Amino acid sequence: MKRDTKEQIAQEIAEKFQKSQGFYFTEFQGLDVKKMGQLRLEFRKAGIEYRVVKNTLIKKALKDAANADKLAAGLKNTTAVAFSYDDPIAPAKIIKKFSKDNEALKFKMASIDGSLFGPDSLPQLSEMLSKTENIGRLAGMINNMVASVPRVMNAVMRDLVSVIDQVGKLEK
């Protein structure tokens, strides 16, 4: 590969790192073409870009990034990067699910909004709720709170009327 091509790829990867909310490094050594195609399809369905990149090009792309030295330390053997632009948790779920049946796929590390996660953190990442699920839960909680205000007000008014009625019966 020519030097100009390498520089261009490194620049392109650096832009992807900056645009993504989260990115995951995986090792895929031992996956055959069919399995790799299935994995890419799963990522594509979720709107995640999955790309095989040489470690040296990733290191060049990360040179100005925060925690570049820690990320570079995990770049050994083959590396593919999953770039998540919308939901930073979705790749963890796909990697965990796919690696159950395909032990050749290994999670190396991830960076989500600048926070680093090592190889042992995949189970915790995959159990986290996605952005959409969190928004849905928040909307549900707000809806429940708003819906409960009239019920509480009605209960207070009903209790007040009941007390006044009881006081009225005592005076007679």
From TrEMBL:
GO CC terms of this entry: large ribosomal subunit
Keyword annotations: Ribonucleoprotein, Ribosomal protein, RNA-binding, rRNA-binding
Coiled coil: none
Record keyword Ribonucleoprotein present: yes
SUPFAM superfamilies: Ribosomal protein L10-like
Any one of the GO BP annotations: translation
InterPro entries registered for this protein in UniProt: Ribosomal_uL10, Ribosomal_uL10-like_sf, Ribosomal_uL10_bac, Ribosomal_uL10_bac_type, Ribosomal_uL10_CS_bac
UniProt keyword Cell membrane present: no
Pfam family, one: Ribosomal_L10
Matches recorded under Gene3D superfamilies: 3.30.70.1730, 6.10.250.290
One annotated GO molecular function: structural constituent of ribosome
HAMAP family: Ribosomal_uL10
Role noted for this protein: Forms part of the ribosomal stalk, playing a central role in the interaction of the ribosome with GTP-bound translation factors.
Assembly notes: Part of the ribosomal stalk of the 50S ribosomal subunit. The N-terminus interacts with L11 and the large rRNA to form the base of the stalk. The C-terminus forms an elongated spine to which L12 dimers bind in a sequential fashion forming a multimeric L10(L12)X complex.
PANTHER family, A to Z: 39S RIBOSOMAL PROTEIN L10, MITOCHONDRIAL (PTHR11560)
Similarity remark: Belongs to the universal ribosomal protein uL10 family.
Protein name: Large ribosomal subunit protein uL10
